[in-house]
Amino acid sequence: MQTRSSDNAKGIDVSHHNGTVNWQRVAASGYSFVFVKASEGTTYKDPTFETNVRGARQAGLLVGAYHFLNAKDRETAINEAANFAAAMSVVGGAASLDLPPVLDYETNPSGISQSELNAVAKAFLTEIERITARKPILYTGNDFAQNFNTPMGAYDLWVARYNTQPPWNVPAWSAWTFWQYSQKGSVPGISGAVDLNVFSGSLTELRAWTANQSGGKSEGKSGRKDVDDMATIEELQQVIQAQEARIAAMEKKLNMSGKEPLPSWAEPAVRAGKAAGAITTSADKSIPDLIALQMLKNLGLLDPDVLRALRSLANSQKS
Q1: Residue 34 has pLDDT above 80, yes or no
Q2: For the chain, which domains are there?
Q3: Which residue is catalytic, options 7, 73, 98, 106?
Q4: 207 - beta bridge partners?
Q5: What is the pLDDT confidence band of residue 278, given thresholds at 50, 70 and 90?
Q6: Measuring CA to CA, which residue among 139, 129, 131 is closest to residue 66?
Q7: Which of 13, 80, 98, 195 is catalytic?
Q8: Could you confirm whether 50 is annotated as catalytic?
Q9: Which terminal residue of the chain has fewer beta carbons within 10 Å of its beta carbon, N or C?
Q10: Pick the residue with more confidence: 193 or 309?
């Protein structure tokens, strides 16, 4: 990957660990952008997120938000994306921020496989883009970046490498968009060490880049989506299969095909319903139908003696 230079726009990233920040002093020290931690996992929201975003905005910095991922499966990743979107909503949502939303995926504590790891990342990235209509970027360490397969290169990379030497190429990326080159920086306005970053171009180029990121997926000169942005056939098939499985599970829960045996709890109510003339067959009855039949039986409204009495009463009123 490329090296950095003195012309690169300078930035930082912060969370509640950095305490109260004097953003005017940060801006006066030559820093032009910041990524602020918004959330982690499915429920945690950084308590300093809103204060940091508003302070950085007032100081004139370009502001973005990031989410630290803990998920070990796709469903949890989707829930984490929802938490991230909710966290950003307190400052106007992802659309109001200058920089794209960021997935921070740098550890694998659950020890999931490489294919599972990629599926989790893709699920989060796809969901946050669906919710926010902004294409996210991915933050990870240079070592950990080797876990991501080539299609993940469709997302811009924010890489962590604490060295004067540039990050090395990995299957998904041969260039970085942001580089976190130190986690022990000293910045006026912040007490203690802080992460230091650079953008892959000048401040003018960063402003132009952010303007191009605000509309979600990029389009080429033809107006068509870039090929790298499109889901692979395998990914589409996985989505279709998952939807079909959900539909089948719902149908199984709600409907009876007529060929399936009745649930044991419904058999007495069905017999009583047939004897009372309420139903003629148990075929194609839904679970709600069976529950309603059971309720009628519980109320005694399928009892032959009760029905005879009701019919007799009805006939006497007619006469």
Answers
A1: yes
A2: 10-217 (3.20.20.80), 255-318 (no CATH)
A3: 106
A4: none
A5: confident
A6: 139
A7: 13
A8: no
A9: C
A10: 193
Q: Is 235 a catalytic residue?
A: no
Residue 117, token pair as written in the block: 């790891």
Question: Average pLDDT, stretch 209-215?
Answer: 77
Q: Which amino acid is at 216?
A: G
Query: What pLDDT, on the 0 to 100 scale, is given for residue 319?
Result: 63
**Token reading at 236:** 């589409």
Task: Give the residue, 23 or 233, on which the prediction is more confident.
Answer: 23
